Amino acid sequence: MKKSKSKPENENGDNSETMDNDLHELFLDELSDLYSAEKQLTKALPRMLKAAQSDELKTAIESHLQETEGHVDRLEDVFQSLGGKIKRKTCAAIEGLVKEASELLQEQKGKSSLDAAIIAAAQKVEHYEIASYGTVRAWAEQMGHDQAVELLKATLDEESAADEKLTEIAESLANSPVEK
How far is 152 from 12, CA to CA, in rounded Å? Predict the structure, then answer.
């Protein structure tokens, strides 16, 4: 009777080499998804910037647009550090959020609630990005991709700071007296 060759199993009975390779492939796929998201946002943020009414919101969007362009560069650096290639794909989640934001901007055009709508749309995007960057950063750490961990953490920190800034602006708008 021949013994079948099998790869070593970890203590959970999993094939760790296959799992590591599968996780690495998933990691690269999710990074490509994030790359698509950031590229889409570099096109969407200028429209939000143009529509924004308050100077504080305009400044925040302009600042985050510059950061987003840096996020694209950082993701390219992550791929380079891994020796991987960015897959051509479209981030359907961001595509949907951008479409929703565009519809909201149209619906709120000329209304005093326009900035509130922009903030709501932007925070939905930020929360998606925070979840996504948190996930890929954790995977990078698990796989020992130290350079990727640092690059992804920097972007995650910027996304979290952008979300906090949007919350501050929303709270200051909510506490502003309404003109009649």
Answer: 29
Element (H, E) at 132: helix 114-143
The residue among 116, 38, 43, 23 whose CA lies nearest residue 77 is 38
CA-CA distances (angstroms) from residue 28 to 62, 111, 114, 122? 29, 42, 37, 25
Contact residues for 79 (Cβ-Cβ < 8 A; gap 6+): 28, 31, 35, 85, 86
The three-state secondary structure class of 172 is: helix
Give pTM, 2 decimals: 0.85
Above pLDDT 70, what percent of the chain?
86
Q: Are the beta carbons of 173 and 67 closer than 8 angstroms?
A: no
Alpha-carbon distance of 78 to 74, in angstroms, equals 6
Residue carrying structure tokens 């985050």: 64
Furthest CA-CA distance within the chain: 89
Q: What average pLDDT does this structure show over 161-165? A: 97
- Contact between residue 133 and residue 152 where contact means Cβ atoms under 8 Å apart: yes
**Cα 27 to Cα 135: distance, rounded to the nearest angstrom:** 9
Tens of pLDDT along 57-92?
Answer: 999 999 999 999 999 999 999 999 999 889 999 999
